[in-house]
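Risk register update: the risk of archive-format incompatibility is retired. Evidence:
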Amino acid sequence: MAHHGSEPFEDDPEDPERKMARNKLMRDLLSTTGFRGALGEFPEGQLTKNDEGAIQFAIGEKDGKVVIDFGTAVHWVGMTPQQAAEFASLLLKRAREVARKNGESVSFVIG
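Archived output:
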C-alpha cells in the first residue's frame, strides 16, 4: 500500500465537515473488492496531516503506453523503501511487456 493525498503539501486543508462527508461518500462508492482507489485506512500510520490513507492502484497498458490507474485524483504518494522497490519492479516489468508488444526495447540505469 502507498500513502496518498488529494491536496498538495502546502495548501490549506479542506473544511473538516466537507472532507468527512466526501470521504464517507468515496468509501461508500468504493466499498467493493478488486477496486482501485482510496481505502480509507492507515495501515502504517498517517504520513502527513493531508494523508488520506492507503490506496490501491493498477499498472496496465493502453494504446501502447504504460498506465498507472489510481482510481481517484492523487497529488502525491508515499511508500516504504521496500514498497517503492516493488513498485519500480512492477513498473519496469510492465514497461518491458508493453515495449515487446510494440516491437521496442527498454533500458534502465540503477545508481
